Amino acid sequence: MFIEIHELELHPIDFEEEIRPGVLDLGEDLRQVEAVRTAGRAQLVEEQHGKHQIVKDIRLDGKLATRVELPCARCLEPVLQDVEHKFDLLYRPQGADAGREELSVTAAEAEVSYYQGEGLLLEDVLQEQVLLALPLKVICRDDCKGLCSHCGKNLNVKQCGCAEPLEDPRWSALKDIRGKLDH
Ligand SMILES: [Zn+2]
Ligand SMILES: [Zn+2]
Question: Distance from the CA of 144 to the center of ligand 2, in angstroms?
Answer without folding.
Answer: 15
